[in-house]
Specification:
Radius of gyration: 17 Å
Number of helices: 5
Strand order of the largest sheet: 2-1-3
Distance between the termini: 41 Å
Order of helices and strands: HHEHEHEH
Helix content: 25-40%
């Protein structure tokens, strides 16, 4: 978060930088949190435990990470088994995804791109089996 980065800069540089003076690549998401706060948001990036925390601090209520979506639907990317840390994964019923937020460059680009494309091309932002893939398109 901006707060954590300001604190880190203050410690390293021995300056007095406030969080209001820090802009991170995902800082603009604060402004759209109100619009998407009740929708399920798919988060793309790395260090999903940290990204989930940032999204919640920004006001997003229903955050699903790429790792979670893959674990709920391993058929979306069958080239690898889902890699889930128990502390990060929160098993739940899949809900339609209302937005995709790319927070940082992901480590697993292939998987994350495939998941995004499947969500974007599906009816009602559902994974394959519920939308265009179910119809063989």
């Amino acid at each position: 978060t901006e707060e954590a980065r300001a604190e880190k800069l203050n410690t390293k540089l021995k300056l007095d930088i406030s969080p209001d003076q820090v802009i991170l690549s995902h800082s603009p998401l604060r402004k759209i949190a109100e619009k998407h706060k009740d929708e399920t948001v798919l988060v793309i990036g790395k260090r999903y435990d940290q990204l989930r925390q940032v999204m919640h601090e920004y006001g997003f209520q229903n955050v699903t990470c790429a790792e979670e979506l893959h674990a709920m639907h391993p058929e979306l990317y069958p080239d690898m088994m889902p890699d889930i840390l128990d502390s990060v994964f929160q098993p739940r019923e899949h809900k339609p995804i209302g937005a995709i937020m790319i927070m940082t460059d992901p480590i697993m680009w292939g998987r994350e791109m495939q998941l995004c494309m499947d969500v974007l091309r599906s009816d009602a932002a559902l994974p394959p089996g519920h939308g265009l893939h179910a119809q063989g398109q």
